[in-house]
Design a protein that fits this description.
Blueprint: H1 13-37, E1 45-48, H2 49-54, H3 59-70, E2 72-77, E3 80-85, H4 88-97, H5 105-116, H6 125-138, H7 141-168, H8 175-192, H9 203-211
């Protein structure tokens, strides 16, 4: 009886990555050709998802430079494109003059609902209107002055103490990280009535900060 041995040859990781990258480039190229044949007034293309990945270590600076050059621009991805704008007229149009035409959509709702539920920052339409009626009382001038301001002042005071301690010991600090944690503590306190202690490095606060 004859027996045959079969040997499997795994596809190298680099080959697989090259194939995926080639597919993504092809999809982006097709999208570019599609838009070039239409005469709609699209914002200029400032780059692709690859440009964002290459500049991931300085993403804020990269997008800031693009916004200074274009004001309004597009970043292409294989399955769609994102429009960025730093034009005050566009911001006013989206957030005020034609607000209901720019909903958050199902994609953003599905991503945010585990954390925000059916809150004002996640929903559209009638649910948004209902949440706005509730929120408008919380964000009155008196409430902001008496409650929200106190929460931000307490967080700022804690932040000042941490910065002062690190500076007196001549230790390096990540000020952006500290600002982020201070902001999270303040927002959680105002929005949910709970201080998770993100800035204080409490165990629960550290986990929430990392997930957020």
């Amino acid at each position: 009886m004859n027996s045959f041995a079969t040997t499997s040859f795994p596809v190298p990781t680099t080959l697989l990555a090259t194939a995926v990258a080639a597919l993504i480039l092809l999809l982006i190229k097709r999208r570019l050709l599609f838009h070039s044949t239409k005469k709609l007034n699209y914002p200029p293309i400032a780059g692709t998802i690859f440009h964002l990945l290459f500049n991931l270590h300085r993403l804020v600076e990269y997008k800031t430079a693009l916004s200074r050059k274009y004001k309004t621009f597009r970043i292409l991805t294989p399955f769609g494109n994102y429009v960025y704008t730093a034009d005050p007229a566009n911001v006013e149009y989206i957030l005020k003059l034609n607000f209901f035409n720019y909903g958050k959509g199902d994609f953003n709702y599905d991503m945010a609902r585990d954390f925000l539920g059916d809150g004002i920052f996640a929903v559209d339409g009638d649910k948004w209107r209902q949440q706005r009626k509730i929120a408008i009382f919380e964000f009155s001038t008196k409430v902001l002055r008496d409650y929200s301001s106190r929460a931000f002042k307490n967080s700022a005071s804690e932040l000042t103490g941490i910065v002062s301690k690190l500076a007196s010991c001549n230790q390096m600090m990540n000020i952006q990280d500290l600002f982020m944690k201070s902001t999270l503590d303040s927002i959680f306190k105002v929005g949910f009535g709970v201080n998770f202690g993100v800035l204080s490095r409490l165990e629960e606060g550290e986990a929430i900060s990392k997930c957020f």
